[in-house]
Design goal:
alpha+beta; five-stranded mixed barrel; 1 helix
């Protein structure tokens, strides 16, 4: 019984450590982009230097955003995960 408790505590510590490690390597950035395509779960964008990326979105934004329009986006990137949209603003141009 004592051995089972020790293993459970060790497993819990390792799990918390892995989650903390994964979460600590998150980078956030923002950039001006032009939306190339929008679907229910993700959107493809091209930044002003021509670099393309796919960004996961949590809501269906197809009714609110327009293709080939410029937006300012703020997104996160973690290890072994997609880019995830945090905020989006319409460009003032």
């Amino acid at each position: 019984m004592k051995r089972l408790i020790q293993r459970s505590i060790l497993f819990l510590i390792i799990t918390i450590g892995l989650i903390w490690f994964w979460n600590s390597y998150r980078s956030s950035t923002f950039e001006a982009v032009i939306i190339q395509s929008i679907s229910k779960n993700e959107m493809s964008v091209t930044n002003l230097s021509g670099s393309q990326r796919t960004i996961a979105v949590s809501l269906d934004l197809t009714k609110f955003l327009e293709v080939n329009k410029e937006y300012l986006i703020y997104y996160d990137k973690r290890i072994l995960d997609k880019h995830r949209l945090r905020k989006i603003y319409q460009s003032t141009d």
